[in-house]
Amino acid sequence: MQDFKRYQRLLENTLARQDFDHEPQELYQPISYILALGGKRLRPALTLAGCDLFNGELEEALLPALGIEVFHNFSLVHDDIMDEAPVRRGKKTVHEKWNTNIAILAGDAMLVKAYQYVAKVDKAILPKVLKCFSSTALEICEGQQLDMNFEKMESVAEDDYIEMIRLKTAVLLGAALKIGALVGRATEAKAHSLYHFGINAGLAFQVQDDLLDAFGDPSKFGKKVGGDILQDKKTLLRIYARELDPKGTEALTQSSLSGDAKVQAWQKFFVESGARSKAIEKREFFLGEAHDALKNAAGSNQAVAEQLKEFATWLAHRDR
Predict the structure, then answer these.
(1) Are 266 and 215 in contact (CB under 8 A)?
(2) Alpha helices, H only, 166-319
(3) How far is CA 279 from CA 36, 62, 114, 310, in A?
(4) Taking the CB of the first residue and of the last residue of the chain, which one, N or C, has fewer CB atoms within 10 A?
(5) Nearest to residue 71, comparing CAs of 123, 142, 138?
(6) What domains sit in the chain, N to C, each tagged with a CATH number?
(7) How far is 81 from 95, CA to CA, in rounded Å?
(8) Which residues contact 273 (CB under 8 A, 6 or more apart)?
(9) What is d(CA 198, CA 294) in angstroms, rounded to the nearest whole number?
(10) What is the DSSP secondary-structure string of 154-195?
């Protein structure tokens, strides 16, 4: 995916030119800190790809793309507070390095900065861009709340779970692509199709994340496998297991197993019940829907279209 590497370089160069060295330092240093922790910059790269797909000027998409990245990192700062997470990308989280109040306020400032960057588009498309970005920002909050609600529920329906991961994860991929397409002067219909490509690619990504958490290779996945199992999270695997074998699910849920024994028991049950196979089928369904939506977007740059198709396939089949 050579174009994505080029997009990532452009974004890093653009980020390096931004000045967050303002007073009070306690507000702005955490912003510089979290943005400097890196990450793959995939979401803003999608904004550039969305623009490039329609042969738009990448220079016009750089600051809106940076707004997507700042927003994503804002959400991580607040997520880490809610999860009481001590580490992010191998470094202390913002609330651990400073304190919770500073992290909340720095996150708030990042949200404002994100809007400032996203708004740096041509006035002709500004209303459409802001409408897309604002609705996405609210949807992500809704998804986070649904995820928190699910923790208190005994069981979750498949449709409810899919809606939660759509809101929490997929909509930002869709919005990143749509905003890029609008900057590239795509029609509303084509931008909408590209949005749905991002939605379905994001859903395939999240289903694969559930599968990796249960069955991934720890040396590649980057964290201990079975975390969702140990926390009794209502993943798609757990939902399918309950649907396919409710008695077996109930027995395993009420067992006194813990640690590795609990993980291994659920892994075996997910396979034998057919939950793993059904989750893989769902992942492939979303990937197929993504590929269809990309065709409907009918971008004028075929090389970028091929890279986006490859990107979606990588998201769905990644091993880390």
Answers:
(1) no
(2) 171-183, 188-215, 218-221, 227-230, 236-244, 246-253, 259-273, 275-297, 302-317
(3) 35, 36, 35, 21
(4) C
(5) 138
(6) 1-120 (1.10.600.10), 161-320 (1.10.600.10)
(7) 7
(8) 240, 241, 244, 245, 248, 249
(9) 9
(10) S---HHHHHHHHIIIIIHHHHHHHHHHHHHTT--HHHHHHHH
185: left (phi over 0), alpha (psi -120 to 50) or beta: left
pLDDT by 10-residue block (mean), the chain, 320 residues: 86 92 93 91 97 97 98 96 90 95 97 98 98 98 95 94 97 98 97 98 97 88 81 95 96 93 97 98 98 96 96 93
The rounded distance, in Å, linking the Cα atoms of 236 and 240 is 6
Q: What is the pTM of this model?
A: 0.94
- Residue 187, phi then psi, degrees to nearest 5: -70, 160
- Cα–Cα distance for residue pair 303/252, rounded to 1 Å: 49
Q: What is the pLDDT of residue 19?
A: 86
Q: Is residue 133 within 8 Å of 118, Cβ to Cβ?
A: yes
Predicted local distance difference test score (pLDDT) of residue 2:
73
